[in-house]
Write a structure and sequence with these properties.
The complex is a heterodimer of chains A (about 400) and B (about 400). Chain A has about 400 residues and is an alpha/beta fold. In chain A, about 40% of the residues lie in helices and about 15% in strands. In chain A, about 55% of the residues are buried. Classes of the chains: A alpha/beta (about 400), B alpha/beta (about 400).
């Protein structure tokens, strides 16, 4: 019996992509039941993405698949066949949400487009996570995290001020467009639930990866353009002075206001350069504090201290300053450890890996990892038997026909 | 006229700067009444900086001014909260408690209240009192450490990431809590560490460390075992296109799409591992093809062959993107001076959505004081004037 604020919700996921897997993970971790439909023969391609635990590729060994698919049931189903789709329809009859990630033209071809689904299941909330949305000239275009990041506008601020124009626009480390689309998808799904509460009718939640990235870009360069008419280019964009080096790496600091600057300068021992007119003159102080020249002066001092030491000194004076943690440092950080943020997730084999845990803490209906990431098709028989009253003989026939 | 999904829900919004305000903006678009509580003592930072961000993250809300350093101000805050379903703040550790507006205190006023409290590193732990916001949080979370040019230093991408992302997760949490309340009548307290939200989206890097002990450095635009996978220079002033070829199938189609040049058949590009190994050379060759074409042309040629490709949009290109235009992603919003400006709307679309969305103007500082203190709290004009004179409604 699961708890969580979404414990009564039933989701059918046919995604086999990182955005759809992450979307239903977010909802599942808050208590929703997620039945993950995987195609034959090998299921979600993410099963073949590393890192692997143990260290050998195997469909049940992907640690990324583990992170994305705890709390889910796996049912293998061939939706290219009419019988497979008939089984899907029976499952949808008992579900609140259908989460899918196919191109609109493919859903039309399979007669699983929204209008058709709505006719058969008027209360069903369909959540579609696609590269470019359901409408528009790009609706059937394909994408990848890098492409979405650029066509959604977020990458166009690099290399930034003082950078080399031959350096290409960057994307963030990891797959931020993919995960972000999943997060907006989960939020949109709940919007759909509230819509249904009003009139009992299902809705189509249309989540575009391009729009997810553009939503991350909603102000900054974009609002500077639409509101102030300034069009920044890749070499004029950038905020602040960037990361500052120290003895064992980098840190970020953001001294707003005179008091914070004075305190920062005092920590550095009130060096002579800080008494220069450039910093004492009110008009030029803001500008000079953020200049590369000043950064170099600061680094002459900071190179003597570690991130941790500088953090302690600055925070003692209420200066906004945080270390640029490496992945090792964030996992080992005292703060994250004290909060129990990193938790163990289990594979069905029993192997465990330390993964990021709850991104929020609900006092009454907590986040929870209730079951391990499933093996491919692990729950096909039990779901079909218990939910659809399919008997053993029928199951055998379906298996023989490669429907399940 | 179909009722909006969050019609009847009221949010007492004490949040400021970006993450909290973005989340309440999304709730407002869905029909909630969001009362943005500011003070002339210390208007929202974004307002003070004359920032174009402020209107973008605060439209569709009601704006009131309330001086919560005054005891009478706290009383009025509680009166607003008593009529609200959700209270959200992103103050530093201890602030709401000191003001007498902590969760336990608010439960006495309204037992089923939903309280959401966000802070950079959370409200528990040895560093709970750290001053932390915006890009510092992303730096802390590990994101900057894995972002940057290959072989280069860690860096941000010139635009805030953590705040808009937390805006999304805060909305998700509030909708989940509101659903729970609708079904059970129970409220609760939701606590956020903004850094934890950002870290939740770094599982590959985190797992490579926790499982194998590998610590990622910045890796540019690369994707392990894939090439071409980068941004390439195009025709025009500083124009770039992103291309991502990750399978053997895509590579075959790519070669055909770009006219099957000799070099496609080089031994060093024969499979994706070798292409990845020789990616610098491959990037150079691909760049020699793209540089004669606009990003749009490259996208059309490659998308016709089902290959992921698309321009790196600047702000103008983003707003004028034909896909966004047809979807109505950017919506016209009325500014305080009466003019209309295009701003980003809801991140997803809803069809058929008979209730529509609530896109309303940007609130002035204290612009809705009459509504909040008069209509909502029932104070008389005289009472309101007195409170203004006393610096309470301020």
């Amino acid at each position: 019996m699961s708890h969580g604020p979404l414990a009564d919700l039933r989701i059918i996921e046919w995604g086999e992509s990182i955005p759809t897997s992450y979307c239903s993970k977010l909802l599942g971790d808050l208590g929703a039941e997620v039945i993950k439909i995987e195609s034959l023969p090998s299921g979600d391609p993410c099963r073949f993405k590393g890192p692997f635990l143990p260290d050998a590729p195997h469909p049940d060994a992907s640690a990324l698949f583990l992170y994305l698919n705890t709390n889910k049931y796996s049912v293998t189903l061939n939706l290219e066949t009419p019988t497979g789709r008939e089984i899907l329809h029976q499952l949808l009859d008992q579900s609140d949400f259908f989460l899918e990630g196919r191109l609109p033209k493919d859903m039309e071809r399979l007669e699983l487009d929204y209008d058709t689904l709505h006719k058969h299941h008027p209360k069903l909330i369909v959540v579609s996570l696609t590269p470019f949305g359901q409408k528009g000239p790009y609706r059937n275009y394909v994408t990848s995290d890098l492409v979405s990041f650029q066509i959604g506008g977020f990458g166009n601020g690099t290399p930034g001020r003082g950078g080399n124009p031959d350096d290409p626009p960057l994307r963030s480390g990891g797959r931020q467009a993919d995960f972000t689309q999943g997060a907006y998808g989960a939020t949109g799904a709940l919007h759909g639930w509230f819509c249904r509460e009003v009139d009992g009718q299902g809705q189509h939640v249309d989540v575009s990866e391009q729009a997810a990235v553009a939503s991350q870009m909603q102000y900054g360069r974009v609002s500077n353009y639409t509101i102030a008419g300034q069009l920044q280019n890749r070499l004029s964009a950038g905020m602040g002075v960037g990361l500052i080096t120290c003895k064992d790496g980098y840190f970020g600091v953001n001294y707003t206001g005179d008091d914070q600057w004075k305190n920062w300068v005092a920590i550095m021992g009130d060096p002579d350069w800080s008494k220069d007119e450039a910093f004492t003159n009110e008009d030029t102080r803001m500008q000079n504090r953020g200049s590369p020249k000043t950064k170099a002066l600061i680094e002459a001092w900071t190179q003597q201290y570690t991130k941790d030491e500088i953090r302690e000194m600055a925070q003692a004076k209420r200066i906004p300053l945080l270390p640029t943690n490496t992945i090792e440092e964030i996992v080992q950080s005292a703060q994250m450890q004290a909060r129990g943020y990193f938790v163990e997730a289990s594979q069905s084999s029993g192997n465990k890996a330390l993964v990021p845990g709850a991104p929020y803490n609900f006092s009454s209906t907590p986040w929870s990892l209730r079951s391990p990431a499933p093996r491919l098709g692990e729950h096909t028989s039990i779901i079909l038997r218990e939910r659809l009253r399919v008997n053993e003989k029928e199951l055998a026939n379906l298996r023989a026909a490669l429907i399940i | 006229m179909v009722v909006k999904p969050l019609e009847g829900i009221r949010v007492a919004d004490f949040s400021w700067v970006a993450a909290g305000p973005i989340s309440t903006k999304y709730l407002a678009i869905l029909g909630a009444e969001v009362i943005k509580i500011e003070s002339s003592r210390r208007p929202d930072t974004l307002r003070r900086l004359g920032n174009t961000a402020h209107p973008t993250v605060n439209y569709s809300k009601r704006g009131c001014t309330l001086n919560i350093t005054e005891p009478k101000g706290i009383d009025l805050a509680k009166d607003i909260i008593k009529k609200s379903d959700v209270v959200i703040d992103n103050f530093a550790y201890g602030v709401m408690d000191r003001l007498g507006l902590g969760y336990e205190a608010l439960r006495e006023i309204k037992p089923d209240i939903i309280v959401v409290s966000a802070a950079g590193l959370g409200k528990t732990g040895p560093h709970k009192e750290h001053v932390a916001f915006g890009m510092l949080v992303e730096s802390y979370s590990g994101l900057h450490g894995i972002t940057g040019y290959e072989g280069g230093p860690p860096r941000d991408l010139g635009s805030p990431w953590s705040d808009p992302l937390n805006g999304c997760y805060l909305t998700l949490a509030m909708l989940a809590a509101l659903k729970h309340h609708k079904c059970t009548g129970e409220g609760q307290y939701i606590e956020f560490s903004m850094a934890e939200v950002v870290s939740a989206q770094l599982p590959e890097a985190i797992l490579d460390y926790t499982v194998h002990g590998n610590v990622w450095e910045p890796r540019g635009n690369i994707e392990e075992g894939a090439s071409p996978h980068n941004c390439y220079p195009c025709l025009g002033e500083d124009k770039w296109v992103a291309i991502a070829v990750t399978t053997e199938d895509e590579w075959s189609r790519f070669c055909v799409a770009i006219g099957n040049p000799e070099w496609c058949h080089d031994e060093q590009f024969a499979d994706r591992y070798r292409r990845f190994q020789h990616r610098q050379e491959l990037d150079r060759l691909v760049g020699e093809w793209t540089v004669h074409r606009t990003p749009q042309e490259v996208m059309e040629i490659l998308q016709a062959a089902n290959i992921p490709a698309g321009p790196s949009h600047n702000a103008k290109e983003l707003v004028e993107d034909p896909n966004f235009q047809e979807q109505g992603f950017y919506v016209p919003i009325e500014m305080p001076d009466g003019g209309e400006v295009l701003m980003a709307g809801l991140p997803w679309r809803m069809h058929p959505n008979p209730a529509g969305y609530k896109y309303e103007k940007v609130p002035q500082l204290g612009g809705d004081n009459g509504y909040v203190f008069g209509d909502l709290l029932g104070l008389s004009k005289n009472e309101i004037e007195t409170l203004i004179e006393q610096g309470v409604i301020y």
